[in-house]
Specification:
mainly alpha; 199 residues; single chain
């Protein structure tokens, strides 16, 4: 029987393959503009619910240290690419500047936390970073959806490769990872901010 970690890796590989195929065919570009945010919201909610409720998936994620979860957020340095695309006139300013700088800030925060010694200061910083990082993803999704509806075709770079992987896979996975960190706080794995850990 496959171990939970192996099953998780297989799931991520299959998901990545599907996202690559969808990006290759520019699936997002062929959908009605209002359908795009519904698709992305469904992927994000589905990933978060699965991480919280599917037994083997919960077990696989539980075995990951918080620093491994933080390391996954270094992918958010992709924000620099958004800013570069904007400088080339290939991405709307409203999205590129908001999502770009927001992702760079979140990735920088994750990098800092990776080297922050364990302790109360780390846990407080992690709590704040988790809130800000999640809000950044919601803001990016909302801004992208609004721009796509207001100016159809302006987000075409997101529809194709390699950036199609961002909304179709990376954002849902990262949102689920933020949810996992919140659950760890709720379970008392980290001390409450301003208080002691629960027994």
């Amino acid at each position: 029987m496959k171990t939970p970690i192996l099953r998780l890796l297989i799931l991520l590989v299959v998901w990545a393959i599907v996202a690559v195929v969808a990006g290759g065919f520019q699936l997002i570009a062929h959908l009605p503009a209002p359908a795009v945010p519904l698709l992305l919201a469904s992927l994000s909610v589905g990933a978060s619910m699965a991480a919280a409720r599917v037994g083997w998936l919960k077990e696989a994620i539980k075995g990951m240290g918080v620093r491994k979860i933080l390391a996954a957020h270094l992918i958010r340095f992709v924000g620099f690419y958004f800013l570069w695309l904007y400088s080339q006139g290939r991405m709307p300013a409203e999205f590129a500047q908001s999502a770009g700088w927001g992702d760079v800030a979140a990735a920088t925060g994750a990098l800092g936390l990776l080297f922050w010694p364990e302790g109360a200061g780390f846990r407080r910083a992690l709590f704040v970073w988790n809130i800000v990082g999640l809000l950044d993803l919601f803001l990016a999704l909302g801004t992208g959806a609004w721009v796509n509806v207001a100016r159809p075709g302006s987000m075409i770079e997101i529809a194709g490769l390699p950036l199609a992987l961002v909304p179709l896979m990376l954002v849902p996975v990262l949102i689920a990872s933020h949810g996992e960190i919140f659950r760890r706080f709720a379970r008392g794995e980290f001390p409450r901010v301003g208080g002691a850990a629960r027994a």
